[in-house]
Amino acid sequence: MHDTDLAATGALIGDPSRARMLDALMGGRALAAGELARIAGVGASTASEHLARLRDGGLVEVVAHGRHRYYRIAGPDVGAALEALSQVAPPRPVRSLRQSGHAQALGFARTCYDHLAGACGVALHDAMIDRGWLTRAYDVTPAGHAGLAGWGVDVGAARARRRSFARPCLDWTERRPHLAGSLAAGITDGLVERGWFVRRSADSRALRLTDAGRAGMQALGCDLSPSATR
Amino acid sequence: MHDTDLAATGALIGDPSRARMLDALMGGRALAAGELARIAGVGASTASEHLARLRDGGLVEVVAHGRHRYYRIAGPDVGAALEALSQVAPPRPVRSLRQSGHAQALGFARTCYDHLAGACGVALHDAMIDRGWLTRAYDVTPAGHAGLAGWGVDVGAARARRRSFARPCLDWTERRPHLAGSLAAGITDGLVERGWFVRRSADSRALRLTDAGRAGMQALGCDLSPSATR
DNA sequence: CGGACGCTTCGGTCCGGGACGAAGCGTGCG
DNA sequence: CGCACGCTTCGTCCCGGACCGAAGCGTCCG
Fold first, then answer.
1. Residue B35: which nucleotide is closest by CA–C1'?
2. B28 in Cβ contact with B110 (< 8 Å)
């Protein structure tokens, strides 16, 4: 039984270079050390040291492929902590039209670690419950099973994973829950594979909703109109 | 629509003195600046500057009573973020028998901002659902209404507050959910007022379960045996 | 009213951590 | 095999933030 060292983890997140790396890794993919150095805007040696500290602190894990070292968020609890911290972090003022567009894109659709977030994530969560695919206790109904199978999502596989199956994750841009857990990760993977969402760039966890994705989500009953997403 | 400055908030939490203050404030009470200086082990001037930064960063809020300045956690979202961060923070090794006792006490019963956490919190959450006081979608049943009224808890008042009513909050010591939200805050207040739990000290968010509390919780079906709390 | 007290602000000091460049190690490839 | 490349480790420098003591302000109380 232990007390925890909050300051240590806070300090890890509290460096701007490391925070930029963590933000990029919240896109859900593993990124190479060199890529993270570029994203953070520091040299390779500096990036190495930052990544070592994040790894030692348990926030990221590393997988080597030959000379390439791929880093990723260590697990869903880290993703959840970073999202919760984003709830209370101050907004970064928008200084350009380009940044404004990026912030809009983040708010509309992005990954929160390994699942869909933003207005699209919240709309999906709400529609799945309204349509009876998911109960308010976060169980998948037979209708949900069938519907998700039609999306190419294997609900049984998600359930078999040794982690939380389905739970609400409070969305920092919408201030309402989107779906998290292994089910949400499976759904998000499935929707990306179907081409409903496309990743914008390595630097960003913003996702772009395709025409096919818009049609599919609206068929479920997701409300993607501008007023509903505000 | 904004991006957030994660590093700024991380850095606030990442100072040991400030982390100690936040930890004490997670006890759910407002504490005076002088008390927080004592808890953090720094002088009054240093504490003032730390508190000013926490206030400016939105993590705490201040209420003046004459020459006394009482600081408290700014809201449930901050409490949730700190609890989520505790999930991923490294354990602080226990160095003495006294610390070991304190860590045990924290794990058994403590406040997580304004609601009961630890083994007791998780046992209460589970028993309320098992006993049919609460549904798995976190609605209070008529039986729950009556039972809680018997505990002196006003469910209607909790529902009328402009915040989340009832939701799971992943417990960092038990790794399972305890109850959070205005309902949980009301329950915790009620149980403290009934003398079921007693606050140990200003420095700590540990709660002590009284004999009356143990009897009352066991009557509901809370499993407080050592094996169930491990 | 005058002194005590709680708290905040400010200037000065010092230390820790982020940045860089150089060197070293391991993988990949012609 | 030799060179290029990706990454890590190490030493040095420098800046920012925590800390303290002093001074100032406002409240409390005899």
1. C6
2. no
The count of other CB atoms within 10 Å of the CB of residue A165 is 18
Query: A121-130, B89-98, B220-229: which has the minimum mean pLDDT?
Result: B220-229
Interface of A with B in 58-77 (CB under 8 A): 58-59, 74, 77
The ipTM assigned to this model is 0.90
Q: Which of A81, A90, A136 lies nearest to residue B85, judging by beta carbons?
A: A81
- Give, as one character, the DSSP assignment of residue A94: P
Chain C bases closer than 7 A to any CB of the protein: 5-11, 17-23, 26-28
User: How many CB atoms sit inside 10 A of residue B90's CB?
Assistant: 15
Average per-residue pLDDT in chain A? 91
Do A106 and B1 make contact, defined as CB atoms within 8 angstroms? yes
- What φ, ψ does residue A225 adopt, rounded to 5°? -70, 150
- Report which residue is nearest nucleotide D5 when distances run from CA to C1': A67
The single residue listed with the structure tokens 């994750």 is A169
Q: What is the pLDDT of residues B28-70, one digit of tens each?
A: 889 999 999 999 999 999 999 999 999 999 999 999 998 999 9
Residues with CB under 7 A from strand C: A 11, 15-18, 42-46, 49-50, 53, 65-67; B 32-35, 37, 44-45, 47-49, 51-52, 62, 67-69
Q: Assess whether pLDDT exceeds 50 at residue A219.
A: yes
pLDDT at residue B228 greater than cutoff 80: no
* pLDDT at position B95 over 90: no
**Residue A121 in contact with residue A112, Cβ under 8 Å?**
yes
CA distance B220 to B230: 20
Task: Look up the pTM and report it.
Answer: 0.91
DSSP state of B41: T
- Walk me through the domains of chain A, giving residue ranges and CATH numbers: 6-74 (1.10.10.10), 80-220 (no CATH)
